[in-house]
Amino acid sequence: MRVEKRTLGRTGMSVTALGYGGAEIGFQHVAQPVVDRLLNEALDAGLNVIDTAECYNDSEGLIGRAVGRRRADYYLFTKVGHAHNLEGENWSPSMMRESIERSLRRLRTDCVDLLQLHSCSEDLLRAGEVVDVVLQARESGKTRFVGYSGDGDAAIYAIRSGAFDVLQTSVSVADQEAIDRVLPVAVEAGIGVIAKRPVANAAWRTSELPEEVYHQTYWRRLQKLGYEFLGLPLGEAVSVALRFTLAQPGVHTAIVGTSQPGRWSENAARLEADGPLSAETIEAIRGRWKEVAEADWVGDT
Hints:
The protein has helices at about 25, 30-45, 60-65, 95-105, 120-125, 130-140, 150-160, 175-180, 185-190, 215-225, 235-245, 265-275, 280-290; strands at about 5, 15, 20, 50, 75-80, 110-120, 145-150, 165-170, 190-195, 255. It is about 45% helix and about 15% strand. The protein starts with a strand and ends in a 9-residue tail after the last helix. It is built from 13 helices and 10 strands. The chain has one domain (about 5-290): TIM Barrel, CATH 3.20.20.100. Helix 2 (about 30-45) packs across helix 3. By secondary structure, it is α/β, with parallel strands linked by helices. It has an 8-stranded parallel β-barrel with strand order 3-4-5-6-7-8-9-10, surrounded by 6 helices.
């Protein structure tokens, strides 16, 4: 299988356009043997980007136990900022430093490739203390690069501050604010961009409002957007949604989570087989968004 790679901005990392997001395995408490199989099969198929966070329950631990021994085979990204099972408040510098050390232990490494601030406010970015923590982590060799994960005005400030190497932001058929406001700023600055929630959680899968709150905003938007492609079989519809995200200027990798072994390879194979999305389809999706999107349809963290 030929897996497309793109250079992640000025980091120089050649990353697979389809990455893996570790939230789902953590929040769904996926069993370790399943994660072992899932991640090792994906790495064997060509995956080289694994993204997680300190607050995705035991996601970091699951990943470390599954593929820590293969550390040279992939780029490892994590996030910091939330006091998940740690003393202290969110964004406390002392808590963040402790959290970084815990992440390294869980991930079974002494250095991650990217350490990201996990969607803190613009006010916190401007105050500078949280930025200093990740910059100090880079200086001490605990991360190669630093990034900001977030949306809207805070993401724009993070880019323009010059402090970060990479931005992770929401881009999908149900979340297009960044296409107009954020991605052009990132392209101008030359920083790497990771698209999070790139298939809008496939929230259209159900005809009823999903029970999981995390999926509800996109479900409501998609009900109003009513894209024609949503009527395709699920795999085909996911392919359209994912190729739309990857077609946006400035996007280097899109992280998709799954708890199903073999699913990453299936998605990668479909991307290879389907090829780039046509300009006509992209324009139709963009046009429908511009026609229907409401003023409060901002980046959904």
